[in-house]
Design a protein that fits this description.
Elements lengths: L1 E6 L5 H12 L5 E5 L15 E4 L6 H12 L3 E3 L2 H6 L2 H8 L9 E4 L22 H8 L3 E5 L9 E3 L2 H8 L7 E5 L5 E8 L3 E6 L18 H18 L3 E9 L2 E6 L9 H4 L1 H21 L13 H17 L1
Parallel strand pairs: 1-2, 1-3, 3-4
Antiparallel strand pairs: 5-8, 6-7, 6-8, 9-10, 9-11, 11-12
Helix pairs in contact: 1-9
Keywords: ATP-binding, Nucleotide-binding
Organism: Danxiaibacter flavus
Protein name: ATP-grasp domain-containing protein
Length: 324
Amino acid sequence: MKKIGIIYGQERTFPQGFVEYINRMNLPDIVAESVNINKVEQGAPSPYAVIVDRISHDVPFYRAYLKNAALNGTAVINNPFWWSADEKFFNNCLATKINVPVPKTVILPSHDMPEETTEESFNNLSYPLEWNSIFEYIGFPAYMKPFAGGGWKSVYKLEDTTDFFSKYAETGRLVMLLQEEIVFTEYYRCYCVGGKHVHIMPYEPRNPHHLRYSAGFTPSEQLYKEMESIVLRINQNLGYDFNTVELAIRDGVPYAIDFCNPAPDADRNSVGEENFAWVVEAMGNFAIEKAKAFNPGNGANNLTWGAFVKHSVHAAEKNDEQNI
């Protein structure tokens, strides 16, 4: 029997719906359940063919467990090694190389020095930064947000330089992004599953949280196809099995605003019944696909690696061959 597990925190509707969807199929050799951990021994295999990760970004112990499981062949969704390395600024940098429009963005050092550092730790950092050049590049109004994390935490709208320095002082040890404001006419949140299935949802971030999926617009056929292409390109390059991409439409152009969401909101009460049904079915079917492909004991790496990593490895191997 191949087991599909899901590891999660406070959420309930998606994990429960995911497990129930798979088990309702009564597949002869596949069962789904909530992951149960009572011992984590180095190098020991996990009892799961597939694990869907919804919480390890908040619980380092779970991240270590998932890396060990992946080492032993479990297909972990999403790849815990890449998720550990990824962050929003790199994603924006990568977008500039794969023809995805993104807001003008710079990264800022934390306002307060990290723990156990002194001024001598920053010999390579010029200070003050070239603030005038930065502000000219980004413009105002602007947005400032952490370079890693999510949930709309510590996000600031900045009206001018005085506002910037006042809010920047509040960010403490957070490393922040300063980003151009995209004044949009439409906004979409897009699920991507398995790097091949896309679900585009009209989304209004200016509404109260419970009304954000109630938007009075829908994309044209051309815009839908363009957004679908962007979502697939982003996720295939990053290598995420499950992610959301947020797209803001300015002058008809979709700008990728936020696309580092490897544990995206999938709560029935938040996304609504139609979107919830889609994401449960898509994730359930994808997990079953991964479980069927699982071959215990063959030492295979069953993680998804994005095109960026694969191309980098291929280039390194080619370089090694030329130097032999």
